[in-house]
UniProtKB/TrEMBL annotation:
Transmembrane segments: none annotated. This is SKP1 component POZ domain-containing protein. It holds the Pfam family Skp1_POZ. The lineage of its organism: Eukaryota, Viridiplantae, Streptophyta, Embryophyta, Tracheophyta. GO terms for biological process: ubiquitin-dependent protein catabolic process. Pathway: Protein modification; protein ubiquitination.
Length: 61
């Protein structure tokens, strides 16, 4: 069974949650973050916490 890549997102109320990378890349905020800041060398997306300043945990849940 293949392990899926996940990305950690952080809401403005400081809640962390993980979602599949493929799903996260459907979000404009996440895709823009990676387009602008992602280091394609040795860092993994799991080690990156992406801030979502316009989303609360209740909205994301």
């Amino acid at each position: 069974m293949e392990s899926k890549q996940t990305i950690t997102l952080k809401t403005f109320d400081n809640k962390l949650f993980e979602i599949e990378e493929a799903v996260a890349m459907e979000m404009i905020t996440v895709k823009s973050f990676f387009d602008e800041f992602a280091d394609n060398s040795s860092s993994s997306s799991k080690a990156t916490i992406i801030p979502l300043p316009c989303y609360s945990y209740k909205l994301a849940d």
